[in-house]
Amino acid sequence: MAEIGVTISHAVEQPEPRHATAEEVSLLGIQNAALVTHIRRTYYSDEGRPVETADIVVPAAHCEIVYEIPISR
Known about the structure:
This is Transcriptional regulator, GntR family. The chain is mostly beta strands. The protein has one helix and three strands.
C-alpha cells in the first residue's frame, strides 16, 4: 500500500465459527461439515477508509487462534 501512497493505520478481524463448505473440505483436506473459523480481515487507511480485505478459513481442529493486543499507556 505504501507504494501507492496509502498508509495503513489498523485492521479489523471478525472471526466466525461455522461448518466448512464443500469447497473448503476439498481444499483443506478435512471431513465433511468439519468446524472451521472464518476470519474476515479489513485493513483501513489512516483516513479511515477500508482499502483491502482478506477472507481466511482455518480448520478448528488443526490450529489455535491467538491474538496479541498492545495496550497504549
